[in-house]
Give the backbone structure.
Amino acid sequence: MERTFIIIKPDAVQRGLTGEIIKRFEQRGLKLAGMKFMQVSRELAQTHYAEHAGKPFYEGLVSYITSGPVVALALEGTNAVAAARNTIGKTKPAESDVGSIRGDFGLEVGRNLVHGSDSVESSTRELALWFSDAELTPWERSTDPWVFENR
Ligand code: DAT
Ligand code: MG
């Protein structure tokens, strides 16, 4: 089953939106595989966002993601990467559809509330960076056959 990596960013945590955001992924049918509340180090932020190093917004991005605690999630499900990206919305909240997390709660790209992996390759890299094997918990969810046809 496909997995994706999500960060509930410091603005969302500070604004008390952690539960609301997790709720949206849960109601979509995505299944928790890992979750932790943590302060991101500068080193982890830089490794996570390495593809953006050198861009004009890079320093702001690193200081934003390290500015307060975050919640890191591993989510599992059919097409988990694409499904989570749709639930999150576009990179710029102003271009995000109402009904998406960024479209419902955000206005600015530098305060866009949530990170979601953009491909299966990224999710594999990011999950290995943020979670140890022991922090990912396999389990049978009793509703799985009602969410996944072939379970
Ligand atoms: P996403 O978070 O939608 O995957 P991304 O990977 O292209 O977007 O960029 C990572 C983060 O960097 C994004 O959430 C916000 C910031 N960012 C991206 N493009 C930006 C821009 N043009 N100006 C300011 N910040 C930007
Ligand atoms: Mg991205």
